[in-house]
Amino acid sequence: MLRLLPDLSSGALSLPYERYGTDALGEAVERLRTGTAVGKIVLDMGGAGD
After folding, report:
1. pLDDT 10s per residue in the chain (50 long)?
2. Which of 7, 24, 47, 50 is the most exposed, having the fewest neighbouring CB atoms within 10 Å of its CB?
C-alpha cells in the first residue's frame, strides 16, 4: 500500500468514487444497492451539526 502513495499523490493513479451530500443519502444508498455506483461512495458530512 505504501508503494502506491506516491502515484496517488501525483495523480498517476486515481481511484473512482462518487461524492454525495447528506441530502442525497437516499440516492447514494440506491446506487450502492443496485450496483450502479462507480467505485466507492463517499458521504460528505461537511456542515453536519451546524
Report:
1. 789 899 989 999 988 999 999 999 999 999 999 999 999 999 999 865 44
2. 50
Please give the grid coordinates belonging to residue 8: 496517488
0.70 exceeded by pTM: no
- Rounded to whole angstroms, the Cα distance separating 29 from 43 reads 10
Strand partners, 17: 40
Tell me the CA end-to-end span of the chain in Å, nearest whole number: 36
Cell of 4: 502506491
Do 44 and 19 touch, CB atoms closer than 8 A? yes
